[in-house]
Write a structure and sequence with these properties.
By secondary structure, the chain is an all-alpha fold. 52% of the residues lie in helices and 0% in strands. The chain is globular, with a radius of gyration of 13 Å. The protein starts with a helix and ends in an 18-residue tail after the last helix.
Length: 82
């Protein structure tokens, strides 16, 4: 997930105003109590931030990936360091 996709999903799932408010105000416990904006600025993967936000806000899997994503979480990137 790219950051632009993150912001598009944020608006689609939470609405423009509420989503932007969450991004600036909601502290994400699993990410050191940083806000979405702070976590992204610190280099956290947008997909990780999205999952943490949705988990914390109790957004079910069927709704967290928007209308165009067949209600399935996109796969995590495979790590080839082995």
């Amino acid at each position: 997930m790219h950051e632009r996709e993150f912001w598009a999903l944020l608006e689609e799932v939470f609405g423009r105003s509420y989503g932007r408010s969450l991004a600036h105000d909601q502290q994400l416990t699993a990410l050191g109590s940083r806000t979405v904006v702070e976590a992204l600025a610190a280099g956290e993967e947008p997909r990780t931030v999205w999952n943490v936000l949705c988990d914390q806000m109790d957004v079910p899997d069927a709704k967290r990936w928007g209308r165009d994503h067949d209600h399935v979480a996109p796969p995590k990137p495979f790590d080839f360091r082995g």
